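We emphasize that the prediction below concerns an isolated chain of 191 residues; any contacts that depend on oligomerization or on bound cofactors are therefore not represented. The input was used exactly as deposited, without trimming of termini.
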Amino acid sequence: MQIDLTVNGKRVSLEAEPRLLLAHALRDRLNLTGTHIGCDTSSCGACTVLLDGVSVKSCTVFAVQAAGQEVTTIEGIGNAAELHPMQEAFWSSHGLQCGYCTTGMIVSAVDLLRRNPDPSDDEIRAGLEGNLCRCTGYENIVKAVRVAGKAMRDGAPRHSVAELMPIHPPVEEPPPSGEGIIPPQLQEANR
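Result of the prediction step, given as a token string:
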């Protein structure tokens, strides 16, 4: 069946079998791979997206159920040119390690701050309860949500990845022969 929905602010139409999960429609049909599939049982929260502004686990929603609605994925929250304060806070507060859960955490935290702009640490933990992280121990995730909440309340400007991590070319190019890089013993062996 043909369904129409708005994804990250753009109207899209796609062919969807009634059993196609929203997570698979986003990843496989629309190439929005920031929505991760971690457990297929709705336990981990890696597939969290906003459906009409409310966080949902996209592995529990059929694509046809999203017809006519607005879906926001991590790609719609921010991008490299203009990070969302939550993305920047996760970066600056070291709220991630392997990164697999991060997109779902960020989407859930954005919804949490929409509902409660200044949550306590306990409220942050409760708000992220359906998102599992196997790496971080959650302390820096809670810190990141706190930092993002303050930035959002203060109206802090958005930054780009380039501003946060400028990449500078080397001052001096290494010689093509490897002098100074490859030990002399190895240079001799290659001659």
